[in-house]
Amino acid sequence: MxxxxxxxxxxxxxxxxxxxxxxxxxxxxxxxxxxxxxxxxHKIRRMQTRFGxxxxxxxxxxxxxxxxMAEGHAWTTEARxxxxxxxxxxxxxx
Length: 94
Hints:
This protein is an alpha+beta fold.
């Protein structure tokens, strides 16, 4: 099932169609798939917004138009733990 996660209407229709528990599961899966890097324990997600494509830095409340800026913010913000240890991951490199 594919939906436009940036559309409030699409998200509303999905929750009506599948119910709250399944919606929560699908949303959590989408959030994990959107992670493109983990820097200093912060998950950086690529997200489409009304302002265009941005890179959201974990739960810091900050997002940037350039990945390099998001990485810089992650390095200067208190480290977060992921899966019991701090790590840096680049899902785009092979």
